[in-house]
Amino acid sequence: MAEIVVVEDEASLRDDLVEYFGRCGHSVTGCGDADALDRHLASADPDILVLDINLPGEDGFSIARRLRERSSVGIIMLTARGLGVDRVVGLEVGADAYLVKPVDLRELEAQVRALARRLGRDGERDGAVAPRAAPAIEAGGENWVYEALTWTLLAPNGRGLKLTAGERVFIALLVARPGEAVGRADIMTALGKRYWDPADRSIDSMVRRLRAKARADLGEVLPVEAVHGVGYAFAAPVTVSP
After folding, report:
1. Residue 105 is part of a domain; what is its CATH number?
2. Are 59 and 81 in contact (CB under 8 A)?
3. pLDDT reading at 132 higher than 80
4. Average pLDDT of every residue of the chain
5. Would you state the pLDDT for residue 70?
6. Terminus of the chain with fewer CB atoms < 10 Å: N or C?
7. Nearest Cα to 9, choosing from 58, 46, 42?
8. Which helix or strand (DSSP H or E) is residue 106 part of?
9. pTM above 0.70, yes or no
10. Mean per-residue pLDDT for 79-106?
11. How far is CA 71 from CA 5, 46, 114, 234, in A?
12. Within this chain, do residues 114 and 26 fall inside the same structural domain, yes or no?
């Protein structure tokens, strides 16, 4: 498991990266700019920085340059620009890898694991979480109920969560196969998308919103779990009501 800091000023992308790396078994902190990063580094010694170039205030090139003078932290730079000169500058100031947005999250995580191994901080030594199979459903637990007619997910405590059209499609797909992982491509097809772009984070964003709604409306943790490298699964007993 690697200790990662994501330095990205775009809040939605930063949150998505933090959530994705966390699901992959890493310990992750998000920072919006150089000041936030410096405050974090005052009390932490991360393994890898995922560093955006275009930051407010001090840019990523400058951050990488000064950190490299005093630290061996791994640095993966991200930029929306695909200019060759940016790549050269990034590598010259000490970056270990350079990726252009929109980045494939699986490729980025593979770069993190490869860099962690190269730095001697690989998952085998640090105990990283391996890719998970679909979560098992505990026997004897109280059932959730999905009411297809009213687009409502009922928690075991009896409280209901009203779903949007997209959320209804997503939940219906998962509760039809509780305990089994449903692939991202299948989810995107059900949502009416022609194909799944690995850089598309819309599913993860929807799940994050659903989890927040469940906490607020149900007072329960939504039993939708990410299955690394596959998709999502509904990890609780559930009854589907027509």
Report:
1. 3.40.50.2300
2. no
3. no
4. 83
5. 83
6. C
7. 58
8. helix 105-118
9. no
10. 72
11. 14, 10, 19, 43
12. yes
**Residue 83: band (very low, low, confident or very high) from pLDDT cuts 50, 70, 90:** low
What percentage of the chain reaches a pLDDT higher than 90?
34
- Cα three-residue angle 146-150-153, rounded to 5 degrees: 30
Q: 202: pLDDT confidence band, cut at 50, 70 and 90?
A: confident
Give the 3-state secondary structure of residue 232. Answer: strand
Classify strands 144-147 and 48-52 as parallel, antiparallel or unpaired: unpaired
Same domain, 19 and 88: yes
Q: Is 132 within a domain?
A: no
Number of domains in the chain: 2
Indicate if 92 and 189 belong to the same structural domain: no
Under the phi-then-psi rule, with left for phi > 0, alpha for psi from -120 to 50, and beta for the rest, what region is 105? alpha
CA distances from 25 to 104, 123, 130 (A): 18, 9, 7
Same domain? For 177 and 89 the reply is no
Q: For residue 228, what are the domain limits?
A: 144-241
Bigger pLDDT: 120 vs 233: 233
Question: Which is higher by pLDDT, 109 or 132?
Answer: 109
Q: For residues 228 and 218, give the distance between their C-alpha atoms in angstroms, rounded to a whole number.
A: 26
| Residue 134 · residue 181 · CB < 8 Å | yes
110, amino acid identity: A
Residues 31, 103 share a domain: yes
163 and 230, same structural domain?
yes
